[in-house]
Design a protein that fits this description.
Layout: H1 2-16, H2 18-26, H3 35-38, H4 50-62, H5 65-73, H6 79-105, H7 111-119, H8 121-153, H9 160-176, H10 183-207, H11 231-234, H12 243-252, H13 261-285, H14 290-349, H15 356-373, H16 378-406, H17 412-431, H18 440-467
Length: 483
């Protein structure tokens, strides 16, 4: 219990200390107009309040990641707490804050545009492909998981296919309609259910004295399971997730003032980390050890664990509400995944999105592809999603490092976590069955050498960009066109 509580406290302290430090390094300009006002179009660029933006951001980035990931990561033992806390404070929240704020400085641009500007034009095409792939995988996965949970919750009374069709219909509406019509109106209520259900489970663990394992040298992780690099691809949301880099530009286009950025971007990542801690603790403590958790996962997957934990901690009624809160998570990330994909394609092709028809012809093919992807095995989809997710996080962190390097500011806050994850991303794909299947020792050597080469190339490009005075932000007077 002490390890769990200490982790929660450290996350909160991290927001008020390291979060403030990162904000100071970046340098907020309160007087600078934001894209929400300068490019207001009534569709994607719409000023909204900080509480509303914060809840929307939390739901956008959360998905099932901070629930399902920590539940599966709980099999590694208390070491999962370390990754969630350290990863969230020093990697994930930095990643989210920098991508959000740099986007605000550049007309609400998405990651492919930012990568093109700060890492080279070739990267624009690479990151576009990565981002669209990632978002399609997210959208597809987040159709399947909530549909399965709802199917179980309703005791199979409604056919799974019908539930999937209804979710797809909602996604289409949320993707095409102005951001304040569905997302802006419903998300605050969804956010309340999410927060209340997570807090309910967390308080239940404390009040009931759940036997949450403590971190020690003898209990670092069970059965000597290999931690590196698998832990970093099992627990992503709640620690570090590239998917967030595709979501922050949605809110960078609705943020009223740069001073709100730390609450919206850094703060909501910390909130997601707390949610991840709660579910990891619940999974570790409520199933008679790791073998019991493993059996539960084998029998019903993370969804079965969510249902069992919710009922144990909150009773039948409260448990049902908590499960609904978890159902909300993937739905409120799936809809913005498709919305982000639509916006990224429009930005790539330079197509204004004010007309409904312009949004429609971009969105429909995305949904058609997603329907096909739903026929692929979920576990295979999730493995590719995990790797693409962390590869995208690396790109976003290097964009942040380049921005800070050119600005002659402390770029290490982004480059260190970016380089660490770069090693993990290369090592994983070299070793994994979905990649090259090389022996782990060879994969590690390849990961370190590959990361070293890419970091050297980064510094060469950064020095040239600084020497050429690459503009860090767009002139507001030029923001007279709508993306």
């Amino acid at each position: 219990m002490y390890t769990f509580l200490a982790g929660i406290i450290l996350l909160i302290i991290g927001y008020f200390t390291y979060g403030k430090f990162v904000e100071k390094v970046f340098g907020v300009k309160e007087e600078r107009a934001t894209p929400a006002y300068v490019n207001s179009d009534g569709v994607d660029y719409v000023p909204m309040s900080t509480p509303k933006n914060s809840l929307i951001q939390l739901l956008n980035i959360a998905g099932t990641g901070p629930v399902f990931g920590p539940i599966m990561g709980a099999l590694y033992g208390p070491v999962a707490f370390i990754w969630i806390v350290i990863g969230c404070i020093f990697a994930g929240a930095v990643h989210d804050y920098l991508t959000g704020m740099i986007s605000i400085r550049n007309r609400g641009a998405h990651l492919p545009e930012l990568a093109s500007k700060f890492l080279g034009k070739v990267m624009k095409h690479v990151v576009n492909a990565f981002a669209i792939l990632l978002l399609l995988l997210v959208g597809t996965v987040f159709v399947s998981t909530p549909a399965s949970l709802l199917h179980v919750l309703m005791d199979g009374q409604i056919a799974l296919g019908i539930i999937i069709a209804v979710i797809f219909l909602y996604y289409i509406l949320a993707t095409l309609l102005p951001v304040d019509k569905i997302i802006g109106r419903l998300y605050p209520y969804f956010g309340a259910v999410l927060v209340i259900s997570a807090l309910g489970v967390g308080i239940g663990l404390i009040v009931n004295g759940a036997p949450i394992p403590e971190l020690s040298l003898s209990n670092f992780h069970p059965d000597n399971a290999p931690i590196l690099p698998l832990l970093f691809f099992t627990i992503t949301c709640g620690a570090l997730s590239g998917f967030h880099a595709t979501q922050t530009p949605i809110i960078s286009r609705t943020t009223q003032n740069e001073k709100q950025g730390r609450k919206i971007f850094y703060g909501m990542m910390i909130a997601e980390g707390i949610i991840a801690m709660i579910w990891a603790a619940a999974a570790m403590s409520l199933f008679d050890g790791y073998s019991g958790l493993g059996e539960m996962l084998a029998a019903g997957g993370p969804g079965a664990v969510v249902s069992e934990v919710s009922v144990l901690m909150l009773g039948a009624v409260g448990g049902t509400i908590a499960v609904l809160g978890v159902v909300v998570l993937p739905i409120t990330s799936g809809d913005t995944a498709f919305r982000s994909a639509r916006m990224i394609i429009a930005e790539y092709l330079n197509i204004a999105q004010k007309k409904f028809s312009s949004r429609l012809w971009i969105a429909l093919p995305l949904f058609a592809i997603s329907v096909v992807l739903t026929q692929i095995d979920f576990n295979l989809l999730w493995r590719y999603f995990s790797w693409a997710n962390q590869a995208t996080a690396v790109i976003a962190l290097f964009v942040g490092a380049m921005y800070l390097y050119i600005a002659k500011k402390n770029y290490w806050i982004s480059l260190i976590p970016g380089t660490f994850m770069l090693v993990m991303v290369i090592t994983y794909i070299l070793n994994a069955p979905i990649g090259f299947g090389l022996p782990m020792n060879i994969a590690w050597i390849g990961g370190i050498i590959g990361a070293t080469i890419l970091v050297v190339l980064f510094f060469n490009a950064a020095k040239k960009a600084r020497a050429n005075n690459l503009p860090l932000e767009e002139d507001i007077s030029d923001w007279n066109r709508v993306a």
